Amino acid sequence: MDEILQKIISALDEGEDEQISLLVRQALAIGFEPMTILENALVPAMTRVGEKFACGEYFLPNLIVSAEAMKQAMFVLEPVMRQRQQMLKRAGVAVIGTVQGDIHEIGKTLVGTMLSVNGFEVHDLGVDVTPEKFVSAVAETGANLLGLSALLTTTMTVQRDVIQKLEDAGIREQVKVIVGGAPVTRAWADEIGADGYAEDAIGAVEIARRLLDVEGII
Amino acid sequence: MSQKILSAIDPKLRVSVLSEDEIRRIHTATMDVLETIGVRFPSEKALNILEAHGAQVDRETMIAKIPGVIAEEHLSRAPSTYTLCGLEPDFDLPLDGSHSYLGTDGCGVEIIDAFTQEKRPSTKRDVSDVGRVADALPEIAFHWVPLSAQDCPVESRGLHELDAIWNVSGKHLQTESIVSEREMRFAVEMAALLAGGREALRRRPVLSIMQCTISPLCHDAGSLEAALVAAEAGLPVGFMTMASCASTGPATLAGNLVVGNVEVLSALVLLQMAYPGCPVYYAAAQTATDLRTGAYTGGGPADYLFGAATNLLADFYRLPLSMGAFATGAKQPDWQAGVDNSLSAFMAASTGADMLLGAGLLHGSRIFSYEELLMDSEIWNMLCATLRGIVVDDETLALEVIRQVGPGGHYLAHRHTLKHMRELWQPTLMDRRPYSVWEEKRDGAREWAREKAQKILREHPGRPLEDGLRSELMKIIALAEQLS
Ligand code: B12
């Protein structure tokens, strides 16, 4: 395989996000097709990182730096692909955030990272996000997945408010709503009419894929 | 203090995990971060106070940089000793540097029912039931609101939780679930009612407050503003860092200590600027992130080391410490819970942490178990005995007794034995029976702990408030609900 693709693979493996942008630019400059870079370097490298994580060789920080590097590589590739009218096949478009009144961040961020590692375009709204903000982000991005994180018993009720506001805005049907966080249970998810619940980030990806009928990554 | 509460007193055994030089280096690094990087205080009220006292404030980012000399000057105003009061003076807890007290863990979201063993979301009734059991256990010196009263309205839930405990127990109460200025004002009203007025409350704080910092290097507006209200009323207030190695704090333990130290001190400095001399405490529950799941469960060597190191830091600043101990990711009261909770409590208590939190919760402070509460209490009982150490004097050297018994024979019938045997620690949950007895019954610590909890729940009425106070408390809560 070409040396430059090999370098991209190892930059992604090591999560060298600055290096990878340079390398992807270089590869484009010497004539590689964006699709080739994606399919022969980035995707297999990310899959390998995922496998190493699954078997315990890699830890979460490995996964996160590689996901970050992937994002940087896509920043370079996407405009070129758009120019050439090549479509990127996404697993879905996800909006995610921690609900209003709640500042617990890590779980939500991990769910976002795992979704993006698995081919979702992720819009992370951060923490303490109002229902209105969720609704307008869903409308603006055309998301088909909404992830609501709540770690407090006093804020989990906001998950219900968000679903209600989606109904009011007439876009409830457009988007699958998944919920999670310490006090959240499957029973709660059912009670508030969410489409799915997961106890951890890997479960979040599974449920998202099941709800949206997705196979394979990217 | 009364004999009603078991505490570790002046531990003879001392663990030292940091040298004086190492503590100084952590301090120097802390002051550097405080002064040059700063901490985010997303509250105008807090920023105004900080700025008025010489901090450099960026209104846009809401970051305040506090010069080291200013921080030190304000910290030095904090009292290093004071007393957490019970509704009954018998339960007063002097934070005098020589006692360590155990409290229940706080704010769980599910409970394993004492009778049905079913796991379910917690209610106000559960808060009160756990309160009664904790009231009856001498090992438990004070309450943290143990569970969330999820059947109560969101806007007054924290107040219902206080009400539930005060209606069953005279022990000191601490809460971590009141994170808005509005709700805190009502909590202060409730405490003042029980203490006999605002001034009396200042003298006898029957309630203390715990807030969290947001690692790395941030605070929450609601928590800050609630803390200011409590400090103004003279309630002891602590800020707890939960910096977690490799996610919200550096992967290295020393760096994590620095981040946490900056967060806690910055909040306490703010309180001292606002109300000089108000009682505050250092609080911490740092851990290491689980590298496979990202989970924050507590437990493991990082926790044990933090437990001991943080107390050295709190001592350096002459502040009482509340240390998160008894934290575990275990799902049941089992080997993992036993190891985690014994070691974390040992490390924190052997350095003299004033308050230890955490009895009773499993699965990273989420699920309350009565069995676990009883087992944690037994661990604490054992530790108090261990920390007392070995007394060496003529009576305990027992030379005369040894002479009398001589080679061979035994000490079973000696008067000296009868005199001292009750100083030897006695288990209530450890299984030392013959094998055949166990084989027949196949029970053990968990069953005994459960039975003990059930017995207390059936027989101990708690210490109900008189009807007048009871209805006055409810009036304050009703007002809080009306006004929200
Ligand atoms: C770390 C922590 C904090 C940190 C958060 C740091 C940060 N930057 O995020 C700090 C110290 C700031 C904090 C603050 C507070 N906390 Co806190 N916190 C925790 C703790 C110990 C762990 C949370 C965590 O980060 N876990 C690690 C991540 C990876 O796991 P996770 O969040 O559960 O997320 C996973 C799953 O839940 C799921 N998931 C999460 N979100 C989503 C979303 C979707 C869509 C899906 C599908 C799945 C999913 O996937 C994630 C990844 O695997 C929990 C207890 C616990 N073990 O959960 C308490 C806990 C949630 N906190 C609690 C409390 C009370 C507070 C405070 C109110 C305390 C205070 N007085 O200041 C404040 C909150 C203030 C506010 N307004 O929000 C209570 C809540 C109980 C209750 N009654 O509601 C808990 C349960 C602990 C306790 N028993 O006291 N906290």
Description:
The complex is a heterodimer of chains A (218) and B (484). Chain A is α/β, with parallel strands linked by helices and 218 residues long. Chain A has helices spanning 3-14, 17-29, 34-54, 60-83, 106-117, 131-141, 156-168, 186-191, 201-212, and strands spanning 92-98, 120-124, 145-149, 176-180, 196-197. Chain A has 2 domains: 3-83, Methionine synthase domain (Methyltransferase, Methionine Synthase (B12-binding Domains), Chain A, domain 1, Orthogonal Bundle); 92-212, Cobalamin-binding domain (Rossmann fold), CATH 3.40.50. In chain A, helix 8 (186-191) links the parallel strand 4 and strand 5 (196-197). Chain B has 18 helices and 20 strands. The radius of gyration of chain B is 23 Å and the shape is globular. The chains are: A alpha/beta (218), B alpha/beta (484). Chain A binds chain B through residues 56, 59-61, 101, 103, 106-107, 110, 153-154, 157, 182-183, 185, 200-201, and chain B through 109-110, 121, 148, 150, 154, 157, 177, 214, 220, 222, 244, 246-248, 289, 291-294, 296, 366. Cobalamin (B12) sits between chains A (101-108, 110-111, 147-149, 151-154, 178-183, 198-201, 204) and B (106-109, 148, 176-177, 179, 210-212, 214-215, 220, 222-223, 242, 248, 293-296, 364-366).
Write the layout of secondary structure elements.
The complex is a heterodimer of chains A (218) and B (484).
Chain A: H1 3-14, H2 17-29, H3 34-54, H4 60-83, E1 92-98, H5 106-117, E2 120-124, H6 131-141, E3 145-149, H7 156-168, E4 176-180, H8 186-191, E5 196-197, H9 201-212
Chain B: E1 8-9, H1 20-36, E2 39-40, H2 44-52, E3 56-58, E4 63-65, H3 68-75, E5 82-84, E6 93-95, E7 99-104, E8 110-112, E9 119-121, H4 124-136, E10 140-144, H5 157-166, E11 172-175, H6 181-195, H7 198-203, E12 207-212, H8 221-232, E13 237-241, E14 244-245, H9 253-274, E15 280-284, E16 287-288, H10 301-316, E17 321-324, H11 335-350, E18 355-359, E19 361-362, E20 367-369, H12 370-388, H13 394-397, H14 399-405, H15 415-420, H16 435-441, H17 445-459, H18 467-482
The complex binds cobalamin.
Cobalamin sits between chains A (101-108, 110-111, 147-149, 151-154, 178-183, 198-201, 204) and B (106-109, 148, 176-177, 179, 210-212, 214-215, 220, 222-223, 242, 248, 293-296, 364-366).
